[in-house]
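Troubleshooting: if your tokenizer reports a length mismatch, compare your output against this known-good record of 87 residues.
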Amino acid sequence: MTVMFVSAYLSFVEFTLCHLYTHLHYVKTVSVFLNTFLICLLLPFQENRRRAKEEINNMEEEMSLAQEQLRARREEQERKSSAGSVR
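Known-good structure output:
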């Protein structure tokens, strides 16, 4: 009787471990799926943010170039006006 009880108990433990392993496998699969899904959802936003930062940097460079050009034109006009008044 005891041997049958131990055998039944071991069968139950084996059955439980097999089910746990199966469930863990499903949990891991679902976890990988959810991570992939979240990455797919977040990547476009990160890409848009990267592009927006790039555009802002480009605009800042263009603004600084435009300011330099305006400064150079003003200095040139001041030189011309001061050279015209000296004559």
